[in-house]
Write a structure and sequence with these properties.
Layout: H1 3-15, E1 32-33, H2 35-42, H3 46-55, E2 63-66, E3 69-72, E4 74-75, H4 76-89
Antiparallel strand pairs: 1-4, 2-3
């Protein structure tokens, strides 16, 4: 095949059937997690995560309504932030924090 014929075939492929250029149609979808999924992803229980939220150790995302149910939807960035906080807070294998001396 000649070089011009190959270029025409490539151009017709890039233009598609309608003659319009093809565009990148990839959509980046942000993955969201429920509270239970976020807790499982970092290796703690849902109850522990809820306790940390209630005590103010973790700032949770705002609840959003799905139908008539309010859910906290955690993004991947929130889960990464939760992982960093867990490394600071969680004392697995080291027992409870010692009580301060009076």
């Amino acid at each position: 095949m000649s070089a011009t014929l190959i270029m025409r075939l490539q151009n017709s492929f890039n233009l598609g059937l309608t003659g319009q250029g093809k565009y990148d149609t990839h959509v980046i979808v942000s993955r969201t997690h429920t509270t239970a999924e976020a807790a499982k992803a970092v290796g703690i229980t849902r109850i522990t995560l809820q306790r940390w939220i209630a005590s103010g150790k973790i700032k949770a995302p705002r609840p959003s309504l799905r139908g008539s149910v309010g859910l906290r939807l955690w993004t991947d960035a929130d889960v990464a932030r939760l992982q960093r906080a867990k490394e600071e807070i969680y004392r697995k294998g080291r027992g409870r924090k010692p009580k301060p001396k009076r």
